[in-house]
Amino acid sequence: MSMSAGARIAVFASAVALFCGVVGCASRPPASQPREGYAADGAVSAEIADSADADARYQPMPGSSYLDPLPLRDNAKPEYPPALLAQKLPPATVVVRLIVDGAGKVADARIIGNAGAEPEFAEAVLAAVRGWTFHPLKRVTGRMVEPLPFTQHYRFVFRQLNGRAVVELGG
Fold it and tell me: Which residues form the signal peptide (predicted)?
């Protein structure tokens, strides 16, 4: 059964809108309240950081749409290094670049921002994220689904609140 020209245009416009919303959006999401987690309960948050690699994004292909990559819920969370608690350090931000393969496994993790922070914070981030797994980025063309590698930056903020270790959503 063939679709009318109007139906084909509507399907194409929907696919383009979905693609732009998933891959092509260059604007930063609105600021939200940081979620705090304590080392004692294992709660931790991370923020997806802006990337300077905007030109390296996948380009739209006619008739294709993309499914966002998502980290698995049981990925290990970075922990505030216990040896640093007594030092009562100021907040420290660590930004890591992950390269994730088409199977959703972290192929490479590199610290790209650790301005003035103790190296133990960067080590804690790398120890956690190197084992992360994602539902991979997927390009859908008709009935064909193609998993794709991708790069993602995450920002972690380590700080102490009332003497307790906190790793929170970056600002």
Answer: 1-25
